[in-house]
Amino acid sequence: MTTLTHSIKLPPGRPPAIVGGNLLHYRRDALGYLTDNARRYGDVVLVRFGKYLGYQINHPDDVQQVLVKQAHKFHKAIIYKATLSEYLGNGLLISDGDFWRRQRSLAQPAFHYKRVQAYADVMTEYSLQMRESWRAGETRDIAHDMMSLTLFIVAKTLFDTDIRGEQNQIAEALEVLLRSVIEQSQKIIRLPDWVPTPARQRKRWSIDTLHEITMEIIQQRRASGEDKGDLLSMLISAESETGERMTDEQVRDEALTIVLAGHETTANAMTWTFYLLSEHPEVEARLREEVVRVLGDRPPTLADLPQLTYTEQVIKESMRLYPPAWSFARSVIEEVELGGYTIPKYSTVIILPYVIHRDARWFADPERFDPDRFSPAREASLPKYAYLPFGGGPRICIGNAFAMMEAKLILAAIVQRWRLRRASDAPVVPEPLVTLRPKGGMPMRVEAWT
Description:
Blueprint: H1 23-28, H2 30-41, E1 44-49, E2 52-57, H3 60-69, E3 74-76, H4 78-88, H5 97-107, H6 113-118, H7 120-133, E4 139-141, H8 142-159, H9 167-186, H10 198-224, H11 231-237, H12 248-279, H13 281-295, H14 309-321, E5 328-332, E6 336-338, E7 341-343, E8 348-351, H15 353-356, H16 376-380, H17 400-417, E9 418-422, E10 430-432, E11 436-438, E12 443-448
Parallel strand pairs: 2-8
Antiparallel strand pairs: 1-2, 3-5, 4-12, 5-8, 6-7, 9-12, 10-11
Helix pairs in contact: 4-9, 7-8, 7-17, 8-12, 9-10, 10-12, 11-12, 12-14, 12-17, 13-14
């Protein structure tokens, strides 16, 4: 964010409250406030959080300017760095410049297409284990189950580690992380860092827990001297052009970043998908017809994925309506023009996939769940950057191919055996934390196909 020191033309925006600007509107209903901004004020909207100004960008052309054409004029938002750096150090999610480029190049080989393909068997194996543990008629919190499943998968595929004994501790620490980041970023008045509030004590516990578990895995791998060809081995053995290797702390930062980004987003994508399928049985029936036709009774494999075209469309449409990475922001490091407005240096630009994905200019009847939007012909007609569940440009999600393969294999494996139905009539409320998740989880009843 920035405070203006010279007169420039400001875009429209909701009038601010006396205290906090628009922060109270945001805290009351972030998704409603930001969606209303776009519909009421247009493609560039001024948002005021306290004394700071930000610019909400709602047009795909301007998003492309930020992420691609003028990406060199932007860094990751300062607020994200301030709130996440305690947990993730200077990992890929928040680093910039030459350091980010070096770290990205070191991690990228683990996500090359052929290597990602090798992870398919693990993804299917863990999905089948979860599927077989369920029983017809029981009610499960699918949000919790998907978090567990994707955490197991990312730990095994990228770090060759089975974390089932530490699952609950890691999950609780990650939950504290996500909530503390949002709470810290939305406070109007902040107490000094030395005040030992209960929230800060929980945050300290979560940081220590995540760091200790990750460092133990790293040190065990270093001590073994074994190169398993996974992401962890690549990070440990990688050398810069000057022959430098990452310290344990740098490896830890990247490992934690990948764990957070690699399981939370996919888990939420799957949870929202099962919710939408339960609300749209005609889509679910068509999906299962494809799964049964392609797979029969055998488990899904990598070779099946090209034939599971409707399965992919279902996942893409789910991520349109409920993008796990529902928002992200950039700090302006060089003055730039967007949508006819001059955006000054040190400003914050806010990009909202959740809002853009529900814009009727790009998606007719945008609130409707319609996987056929992503048939090849219709998807090709979309404007660039009208659909960006993985971001875009140089900083596009490093694990996008990994995530899509994982989502298709999980969905096919579960739909092959079970259908899920909501166990409550209570409204489902999206909770916009670091990722977009259903508030209070997603209790669903497990039913066998008849």
